[in-house]
Amino acid sequence: MVRFRWAVLAVWIAAAVVVPGALPTLSSAAKSQNTSFLPSSTPVVRASKLAAPFERQNTASTLLIAGRSGGPLSAADESSIATATRAVGAVSGVRDVRSGELSRDGSSRLATVELKGVGARSGGGKMVFDQMRGAVRSVHAPAGLQIHFAGELAQSVDANAKQSHTQSLTELLSVIFIIALLLVVFRAVLAPLVTLFPAVLALLIAGPLIGEAAKAGLEVSTFTQLILIVIVLGAGTDYGLFLIFRVREGLAHGVEPREAVIAAVSRV
Predict the structure, then answer these.
(1) Helix, strand and coil in the chain, % to nearest 5
(2) N or C: which end of the chain has fewer CB within 10 A?
(3) How far apart, in whole angstroms, are the C-alpha atoms of residue 267 and residue 247?
(4) Is 119 inside a domain boundary?
(5) pTM
(6) What pLDDT, in 10s, does the model give residues 8-43?
(7) Which of 124, 150, 176 is the last residue of a domain?
(8) Parallel, antiparallel, or unpaired for β 108-115 and 94-102?
């Protein structure tokens, strides 16, 4: 390992660059619904299988809600809603838009948007929703009229985007905290970076690999993302500390740097 250290380092860096771009992200594979982890004998799972023939294949749907507070929809509101509905229907990922009913007080109108088999957590799902929301924003709605998407699919897409942001923020704050802690421990600049660098590389590679495994049938929970950060950065930093302290011990006893590294790697 020590003999081919530069080759090993180059392979890890190359993998950290290539893997995240070539494989799906962990957040796109994680499932927020706990029913995904239920055994097949569970009544709700059995019911879902029985209901499958009645569901349209390769389709997903979301709701388009338009309304205003404090009064019924005006003729101008209805015209803007119709324009927004047509704009959403023109999006490439949309199969059909069905205008729905008017609320009892006349303040809101509902439409059902059928999508072409878009998964809530897929990259295509977010892309389609971004396009639909862009289509709605392009409509110059009267003041006070609000047009939004609702339903489980829309919530899942937004939750996925929020989780991705939270994961990135957690990773950043974790790295900053660990570096600050290591700076206090080592009282040096290079040692903390050397300690944390392998763990960061492993984290960049592990997420997409788990995401790819999920495509093969591995069930992945949303908690996996945060747990992965804690375990990889925590364990990686611990082993990095062990290695560096063992190397320092060897150097303190007059051992040559190369031999000190070999001894540390063989003992940790």
Answers:
(1) 65, 10, 25
(2) N
(3) 11
(4) yes
(5) 0.59
(6) 889 999 999 999 888 888 777 766 555 566 677 777
(7) 150
(8) antiparallel
